[in-house]
Amino acid sequence: MVIHYLLAAPPAVTDSTWQSLVIESDLPVLIEFLAPWCGPCRMIHPVIDKLAQQYAGKLKVYKVNTDESPSIATQYGIRSIPTVMVFKNGEKKETVIGAVPESTLTTCLEKFL
């Protein structure tokens, strides 16, 4: 018998919450830029959700729907999704583009924790 655990998906960030949730965060922040219609985005969702659980208390994880918040995507030059960015102290520190393995994201995150 297989038991599936439902992980709470990271909350969405919008234009109105970007400053308070990301820029002013006291913890490093991982942002996934995505769109609901994006196949590779759906592939990386479980990895992002797992990282959110794994690093709870050390890292904040949010998602930005590029269809609903295009100004944030434009501000950070998002041209391809999924794109994952790590922010620390309000500054963009790292960008990973595409549906990458969990190990790639873990290596990226460890530098900022």
**Helical residue percent band:** 25-40%
Number of DSSP strands?
A: 4
Number of domains: 1
CATH architecture: 3-Layer(aba) Sandwich
- The CATH superfamily is identified as Glutaredoxin
| Count, helices | 4
What is the terminal separation in angstroms? 37 Å
Strand content: 15-25%
Please explain how this structure is put together.
The protein has helices at 18-23, 39-54, 70-75, 102-110; strands at 29-34, 60-65, 83-88, 91-97. It is an alpha+beta fold and 113 residues long. The chain has a single domain (18-110), classed as Glutaredoxin, CATH 3.40.30. Residues 1-6 have low confidence and may be disordered. This is Thioredoxin. Belongs to the thioredoxin family.
Offer a quick outline of the entry:
The chain has helices at 18-23, 39-54, 70-75, 102-110, and strands at residues 29-34, 60-65, 83-88, 91-97. The chain is α+β, with helices and mostly antiparallel strands and 113 residues long. The protein has a four-stranded mixed sheet with strand order 2-1-3-4.
Write the layout of secondary structure elements.
Layout: H1 18-23, E1 29-34, H2 39-54, E2 60-65, H3 70-75, E3 83-88, E4 91-97, H4 102-110
Parallel strand pairs: 1-2
Antiparallel strand pairs: 1-3, 3-4
Domain Thioredoxin: 3-113
Pfam families: Thioredoxin
Family: Belongs to the thioredoxin family.
Question: Can you give keywords for this protein?
Answer:
disordered N terminus, Thioredoxin_domain, alpha+beta, 113 residues, transport, disulfide bond, 33% helix, Thioredoxin, Thioredoxin-like_sf, Glutaredoxin, globular
